[in-house]
Amino acid sequence: MGLNIGGRIEKVNGYELNYTTFVEKYLSKNKPVVITGGLMDDWGACRDWVFDDGRPNLHFISSNFGGSKVQVADCGSREFTEQKRYEMSVSEFINHWLELSSMEHGNHSPSKLQEYPEYTAYTTPLFFHDDWLNLYLDHYHMHEDPDTDQKRDNLSCSDYRFVYMGAKGTWTPFHADVFRSYSWSANVCGKKQWYFLSPDQRHLAFDRNMKSSVYDIFEEVSETIFPNFKKTIWLECTQERNEIIFVPSGWYHQVHNLWDLLLGDYEEAREYIEDIKDICDDFEGLCQRNLAANTGMNFYDCFNFMVRFSFANIVQLCHLARSSQFAKWRSSCKAQHLIFNLKSTKDIAIKMKLTCLSENHNFSLDFRSILEEPTFLKLCIQLERTYDFIHDQHPQIDNTKKYSMDDLVDMGSLNLFSTVVRNPQNLVTLIDQTLQNLITLAGVNEIESNITI
Ligand SMILES: O=C(O)CCC(=O)C(=O)O
């Protein structure tokens, strides 16, 4: 049975959030939020632990922190309410990761940050400064046991500051944070999927005696032991790189490290043939051929797809703008949907620009010749029917329909017919200009509110 997802965690821009608003809207309401920009800009971790293309710099981590002992959880085996754990050094963990890609979490055990006082990995954002637990634990022990002879040196103080590292597919089981504290978690590299259960639903994930909770929300949950689990309603969130999530008190959560499909498959295909790199004339070409053979598309196929799909959405949007009065089309669900598609393809293009397709490669798609492709016209017709159907506008079946120059509204300075896309940045610019021109044509004030989808 799939989870019943009731909504997504709100995302706010860190540049636009102030402390008072954070306290009023999230902290005091015990409401989770993701803060997207500005809080991690000058972090050493973002600079040193990740390459520009988003891959983790395991070499840096291993050579700078390799000797530290960490707890490593094996996602495949359960021990009571947790994953089975092993202790090893960071460099042993990284070697395991590279060999197996199946272990989770170099979970730096308490005080490890204090092992590197000269290295500043991060600075605590203002929103999370008021941290009673860590402030206290920096100076005191929570529990002094006279029977155990604990060493009282600086490093023996424990705190609740951790670094989690894990390969694709690794995950952290369902839990709430220690002492029901509030926490925050910054994502330096990769992508995480979070599933949240609010405190008022917590009892639904427990057994009748409220003793034990579900371990993995995606496994077959026993109805006999957890009779109410099927009533749970979840909030989900995809946490991207450089985003910080605020996890309020008592919110249970399960977290998965996601696999970036095409990029991950590319890295796998590349690693597989890395040893013939030096004797191969066109190593990158071979990587792309292997990627296509294994995954069904390579970077160029994906970009071709995005460009044609964006062109088809632009044609539809222009067609809609032309066939109805601006005032009507801009608020229609169909226009909103097309604009949403364009914004999504723009996000993908930005990602491709940063991670896989550089400016310098041999690629060129021009609007005019695509518009003349019979297959492209069929794509446009099908797209139109799809959104008519979704938005309940009775589609007119006209197989002879042609989209032509005349269907495209006059975009002012943007001449769609001379548009040539050679790289992801060109696509980003085209989408920005198209939306901007349509906004201008429709009247700035009125469309702005519609365009925030
Ligand atoms: O990032 C993760 O895998 C787990 C993070 C988490 O659950 C937490 O910080 O409480």
Automatic annotation (TrEMBL):
SMART domains reported in the protein's UniProt record: JmjC
Gene Ontology cellular-component terms listed: cytoplasm; nucleus
Superkingdom in the source lineage: Eukaryota
Pfam family, one: Cupin_8
PROSITE patterns hit by this protein: JMJC
Gene3D superfamilies hit by this protein: Cupin
Record GO terms (molecular function): 2-oxoglutarate-dependent dioxygenase activity; sequence-specific DNA binding
Span of domain JmjC: 113-284
Family, similarity comment: Belongs to the JARID1 histone demethylase family.
Protein name: JmjC domain-containing protein
Organism: Centaurea solstitialis
